[in-house]
Design a protein that fits this description.
about 20% strand; about 280 residues; two-stranded antiparallel ribbon; Helicase, Ruva Protein, domain 3; alpha/beta; about 40% helix
Length: about 280
């Protein structure tokens, strides 16, 4: 067994004992070596400095530092989203929803459409939609720090979007074909029980959804019809136990309500059409 394999084996054992994905070791080492994970086992040499850096990253991962914090970014549908203390780290569940929306836009719209990404945070949703579909995307958030991150990412990836400071719909004008939001949806009482990677790395502003976790859904669903074209679509990422409550809120002004599940089979986002 070569040096790379031995180093990885030791790191994976440490991660496994802490109930952390052993795949993180391969990803961290490939990042240190400047290669892809698929190329990792073809690397013949590793320097003492690289070993030291890798061991440091593994130690930090064992302390539950998030992966994007350790390497500085998350890749989201081909876009690099830099780690930022002021924004929620992009999740695979959000990537699933965004990819589905992109596919739906390409299939169902022949002309350029207008999309609003509400509570944009890092901008991952709006940037991916604009990049993949050419849609006219507006991204808004109440946090100036989050918007600075989204703007930096847009410039770095050469993606043309409109960025607005707004407390939900306060500064939004015009109407849209699609509104997308991944709002804060954790109940206040559940915040302290979140996994360390979330509790330590993600801003409270992006997590706390009020006493029952549903505050933002009430406000968004109440106002969204005013900002949607006829038959306009609303997409909401949800907590896995919130589908029934959010669906109930939607029924007054929306039809064709569909609850979509993630790869784990959990309810993850809702699609609805303005009546």
């Amino acid at each position: 067994m070569g040096k790379i394999e031995n180093i990885l084996k030791e790191a994976k054992n440490k991660l496994k004992s802490a109930d952390i994905s052993v795949k993180d070791a391969e990803f961290l080492l490939s990042n240190v070596l400047g290669c892809s994970v698929s190329q990792l086992y073809t690397v013949n040499t590793i320097t003492d400095a690289q070993i030291e850096k890798f061991e440091y990253l593994i130690d930090k991962r064992l302390e539950h530092y998030s992966m994007d914090r350790l390497i500085g970014y998350t890749e989201f549908l081909g876009i690099k989203i830099p780690y930022n203390v002021h924004t929620l780290s992009p999740r695979q569940e959000t990537e699933i929803m965004t990819d589905d929306i992109i596919k739906s836009i390409k299939k169902n719209y022949s002309e350029k459409i207008k999309v609003l990404d509400l509570c944009t945070g890092s901008g991952c949703i709006g940037l991916a939609v604009a990049h993949s579909t050419g849609a006219d995307v507006t991204m808004s958030d109440i946090s100036i720090d989050a918007l600075d991150c989204a703007e930096t990412c847009a410039i770095a990836n050469n993606i043309d979007v409109t960025i607005l400071e707004s407390n939900l719909f306060d500064n939004i004008t015009g109407v849209f074909d699609i509104i997308i939001s991944n709002p804060p949806y954790i109940a206040t009482s559940e915040i302290d029980g979140l996994e360390p990677e979330v509790l330590y790395d993600d801003p409270m502003l992006a997590l706390d959804g009020g006493d029952d976790g549903l505050d933002f859904y009430r406000r968004i669903i109440n106002l969204a019809p005013r900002f949607l074209n006829p038959k306009g679509k609303l997409y909401l990422e949800i907590g896995c136990l919130q589908a029934k409550s959010v669906t109930g809120m939607l029924k007054k002004e929306f039809g064709n309500i569909i609850v979509h599940r993630d790869y784990a089979g959990l309810d993850r986002y809702i699609e609805a059409e303005k009546l």
